[in-house]
Design brief:
This protein folds into three domains: 218 residues, no CATH class; 89 residues, no CATH class; 178 residues, no CATH class. The chain contains 20 helices and 15 strands. The strands form four sheets. Strands 1, 2, 3, 4 and 7 form a five-stranded antiparallel β-sheet that branches. The protein has a four-stranded mixed β-sheet with strand order 12-14-13-15, with helices on both faces. Strand 13 and strand 14 form a beta hairpin. Helix 8 packs across helix 11, helix 11 packs antiparallel against helix 12 and helix 15 crosses helix 16. The relative contact order is 0.08.
Length: 517
């Protein structure tokens, strides 16, 4: 076989894609257009070649198959690939590849009880087809690779699932790889190679209506008429943009946003809130409203919408808060979200808290940082709070009065500390960010924020100081109750924190919460 054409785009140290056309070895089972597109695809994620594989013991750097259907798949699924973040059914893991595997192996009847079994399976399959490159090949063997939106980034994740019928002598070498890069960078690289590849096919097959139609579809991805913009907003907002009825409802909802936000906002604030009609391959920065809706419960109701928009409107009228201090953290090896959050919480306590005080005054710290907060009712009882974060204007925390665990002082303090973790350390996820702390927030981000809150409110330094003041060991319930009261945290939070610090065993932690002494 001879390589007759090749194109590479991107950066192999982060993300890159290479397409090559090769002389068709022997097949006559495909039409002339597809036979002309026989070739290879090579993909790099985080500098790792995820198409590298072993075939009958021979190492190969690329996946080989007819590329025309794959190019067509990219063009047909462009908008969900680069704008749809919300996973089907539930957030089952931090990346798409792991989540989709977990959703499939666990009984689907356990997730999204508002859907029947067939609807749940269809939701999984439809999302998979929009985001997994394996859907683009029939007969070929491609890596289990997903592309989806992640904040202002594109997430490329590679799982270990194999195509049915894959021979035992065939194995992809690099799995469980996750990369997150600027959406425009990834989109531009893919667009570059599929456009050039299709132009080459059109040169070879000038009379092919299929190829000329595909080339037009690729040119149309530049979104010159603004119609595609609306669908991209729908995906960013968590709407099922595959449903014409859902899109119609979304258009109606979006048309009301202006009215609810009001007219006092300046041009910059309005663009932050709702974006602007402009062409391009991808919406690089999600409008704040889309981020709000996209990370909230899929059953966003009218009251929720008005509460969220009213708070956003207020934020966009506030002055920009003071610059946040840089939290100095030691260089550490790769940590789990919980371990990382704990380290960040300890570091933030040292930088922000009054270390002479007997507890962390979270509300005073927020005030000093220029972060406002309020309470209102949202319908989803699993939503803890919403953080509205802007570069140019205010930063606000909206606490849900309807939260399933209530809003007692310990719960409220933990909620505010949790949101502070998002504000301090998750701003890089997108330039204009809304974080809804609930079931649809990215799992790793929520785990890290929970660990941050626990470490910030219950740092080792304070726990050690208070334990020395106790006449009985801290693992006694009586002592733990006194420590929790002084720190103004819940007993269960204190027990979990002490267990994570290995100050108590799991049995002792359970006794603190549920025991009699």
């Amino acid at each position: 076989m001879t390589v007759t054409w090749t194109a590479l785009a991107g950066d192999t140290s982060s993300f890159a894609i290479e397409l090559s056309f090769i002389t068709d070895p022997e097949s006559h089972h495909y039409d002339a257009d597809e036979r002309e597109s026989w070739g290879s695809i090579t993909l790099w994620v985080n500098g790792i070649n995820v198409t590298e594989h072993l075939e009958q013991g021979e190492p190969l750097r690329a996946a080989h198959w007819y590329l025309l259907p794959t190019i067509g798949w990219f063009a047909a699924n462009w908008d969900p690939l680069f704008h749809e973040e919300r996973l089907p059914l539930k957030n089952a893991a931090s990346d798409a590849a792991t989540a989709m595997t977990r959703l499939l192996v666990q009984p689907l009847r356990l997730v999204r009880t508002d859907l029947d079994e067939f609807e749940r399976l269809d939701a999984w399959q439809s999302w998979w087809a929009r985001h997994n490159i394996v859907d683009s090949v029939e007969g070929g063997i491609f890596p289990d690779l997903y592309i989806r939106r992640w904040g202002d980034l594109s997430e490329i994740s590679v799982g270990a699932a194999t195509t049915p019928g894959t021979p035992s002598h065939f194995r992809y070498q690099n799995v469980d790889v996750v990369g997150r890069l600027p959406a425009k960078f990834v989109a531009t690289a893919i667009y570059d190679v599929i456009q050039r590849a299709t132009e080459e096919l059109a040169r070879r097959r000038p009379d092919s209506t299929r190829i000329s139609s595909l080339l037009q579809d690729i040119h149309d991805l530049m979104d010159v008429d603004g119609l595609r913009y609306t669908k991209r907003l729908a995906y960013l907002s968590g709407v099922n943009a595959e449903s014409s009825q859902d899109v119609e409802n979304f258009v109606d909802l979006w048309s009301r946003v202006d009215e609810i936000l009001g007219t006092e906002l300046d041009a910059t604030a309005r663009e932050i809130a709702i974006g602007s009609l402009r062409g391009g391959l991808v919406l690089e920065t999600a409008p704040q409203v889309a981020l709000l809706f996209g990370s909230y419960n899929p059953t966003l109701n009218d009251n929720d919408m008005q509460v969220l928009l009213r708070n956003l409107h207020n934020v966009l009228r506030e002055p920009r808060p003071a610059e946040f201090p840089t939290i100095k953290t030691p260089a550490l090896p790769r940590l789990s979200p919980g371990q990382e959050g704990s380290q960040l919480g300890e570091a933030a306590y040292s930088e922000l808290a009054d270390r002479e005080a007997g507890y962390v005054d979270i509300q005073a710290i927020l005030t000093r940082l220029g972060i406002t907060h309020s309470m209102d009712v949202l319908s989803d009882t699993n939503t803890r709070a919403v953080s509205l974060i802007t570069q140019e204007y205010g930063i606000h925390i909206l606490v849900n009065r309807n939260y399933v665990r209530g809003t007692t002082e310990p719960v409220l303090r933990f909620t505010l500390a949790h949101e502070l973790g998002h504000i301090l350390f998750d701003r890089s996820r997108s330039l204009r960010m809304a974080v809804v702390s609930g079931p649809w927030a990215p799992l790793a981000i929520e785990q890290r924020a929970n660990a941050f809150a626990a470490a910030f409110l219950m740092p080792e330094e304070l726990l050690e100081r208070l334990s020395k003041q106790m006449s009985i060991p801290i693992w006694h319930k009586k002592a733990a109750v006194q420590v929790a009261a002084r720190l103004r945290v819940s007993l269960s939070s204190l027990a979990d924190r002490m267990y994570n610090l290995m100050l108590v065993t799991r049995e002792e932690a359970n006794n603190i919460v549920y025991g009699n002494r």
